[in-house]
Design brief:
Layout: H1 3-21, E1 28-33, H2 37-49, H3 53-59, E2 60-64, H4 70-77, E3 87-92, H5 104-108, E4 114-121, H6 130-138, E5 140-144, H7 152-161, E6 166-167, H8 169-179, H9 183-196, E7 203-204, H10 206-213, H11 221-229, H12 233-245, H13 252-275, H14 281-288, H15 295-304, H16 307-324, H17 334-346
Parallel strand pairs: 1-4, 1-5, 2-3, 3-4, 6-7
Helix pairs in contact: 1-2, 7-8, 8-10, 9-10, 11-12, 11-13, 12-17, 13-16, 16-17
């Protein structure tokens, strides 16, 4: 899935939320795809807006797909509301529903007084099947996609902006490296930050991240990649030793993912310069999906890691990823593997 399609999907979701806030409801909603964060947010809006607190007791049903059959969902959806204009039926983890094809007849003729929400977390309906076609015809279907790592920074900025906050670039990078593309985790950490900042403060910095989330401003994947960019061996080794002493806090798989993303961006930098040696700094930043704030670091990395060295680093990271998964690692601990990898990248 390309970035444009992911961005369009986010825009579609925002339009869907906007309709909810205006009280414009479809007969039913099918939420599906890779990123469950959007389903969580949508369901929260439905719970808060579709019924009054007094109406919820008799007219709101929330179930999990593993605990109910598709036929039972249809039966619940065909009931009429009690002393309210509508009833709400929410099915979380709908991908676990037994005999999903039983939903087809309801999708073909939904009850106007029922608002049905089916959240297929991590799964999507077969777009060639009748169930999907009926869903598109008579209801609303939203499909989410996981972000690319380089899209997370912008997502963080936008999420905070909707809450009236901003964040400095290095703090955003620390969070993005720590949380990866897992939006549920990111949103949780950002929400914690916004409620724990001192009164009146609206800009989050690296110190705030360290103080309120437990992520160290000195020992994190972002600082490691920065040390590698500048070939600051002493700092890189110090960070790696810290990681090795706390393997549960700094899992090897997470650190390797951050290193891979970093050198993949650097590889993109090389490709840009090969195509257009006179590209401006802003053009390079746009093409790499980073903020201009980080260009000085990548300028240095570009000089320190010529194309062949950059490709060798990526190859080494892949090799140590295999070793970390038990393929020929012998007695080596995760910290020892990471130390060896970083040493080889530096030298």
């Amino acid at each position: 899935m390309g970035k444009k399609e992911i961005e369009n999907s986010i825009v579609s979701f925002e339009k869907l939320l906007s309709k909810l806030k205006k009280g414009e409801y479809a007969p039913f909603y099918v939420l599906m795809g890779e990123e469950p964060f959007y389903s969580d947010l949508f369901i929260k809006e439905i719970e808060e807006r579709a019924l009054t607190p007094e109406e919820k007791g008799f007219n709101q049903t929330i179930v999990y797909g593993s605990d109910i059959s598709a036929a039972a969902v249809v039966e619940a959806s065909r009931r009429y509301p009690m002393m309210a204009a509508r009833q709400v039926v929410i099915v979380k983890e709908a991908q676990k529903l037994d005999k999903q094809e039983d939903l087809e007849h309801y999708f073909a003729s939904p009850l106007s007084s029922t608002l049905l929400v089916l959240a297929f977390n991590g799964k999507s309906l077969d777009k060639r099947g009748k169930l999907y076609k009926q869903a598109v015809k008579n209801g609303e279907v939203f499909e989410s996609y996981s972000l690319y790592p380089e899209m997370v920074y912008t997502w963080i900025e936008k999420y905070l902006r909707t809450k009236g906050f901003s964040i400095v670039p290095d703090a955003a990078m620390i969070l993005s490296e720590y949380c990866g593309t897992e939006l549920r985790k990111l949103a949780l950490e950002l929400d914690k930050l916004t409620v724990t900042l001192e009164a009146g403060k609206k800009t989050i910095n690296a110190g705030d991240v360290q103080q309120n989330t437990g992520i160290s401003r000195d020992y994190n994947a972002f600082e490691l990649t920065k040390a590698l960019s500048f070939k600051d061996s002493a700092k890189a080794i110090k960070i790696v030793r810290h990681f090795g002493a706390s393997p549960k806090q700094f899992p090897l798989v997470v650190i390797l993912a951050a290193l891979f993303s970093h050198f993949s961006r650097l590889l993109r930098y090389h490709a840009i310069m090969m195509k257009n040696p006179k590209a401006s700094q802003s053009e390079i930043a746009d093409a790499m999906g980073i903020r201009p704030f980080f260009i000085p670091e990548y300028n240095m990395a570009f000089r320190n890691y010529p194309l062949i060295k950059c490709m060798e680093a990526i190859s080494l990271i892949k090799k140590y990823d295999s070793l970390g998964k038990g393929m020929g690692r012998g007695e080596a601990q995760d910290g020892e593997l990471l130390f060896e990898l970083v040493f080889r990248i530096l030298h």
